[in-house]
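## retry 2 of 3
previous attempt timed out at serialization; input unchanged, resubmitting
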Amino acid sequence: MKNLTIGEQVSITAGIPAFWRCTGWIIGIIEPFVRDEETKARALFEMRLYSVRLEDGRKFRFRGRDLEPVAARS
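## retry succeeded, writing output
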């Protein structure tokens, strides 16, 4: 599981054609309500938990596995 943070720039790798390779910034992280750490790890991987604002202004939620950090520009 990747550790992504609020404000981090990401590229979308989800199989949704309208979002493929779009970039944006994480604006929120949704925590699942679960009973133990093992269940939480599974839930964090499976559920849509990162709210992302795209460069064109759209907002959408993506699973962590559908996001790829964008290398810092120099």
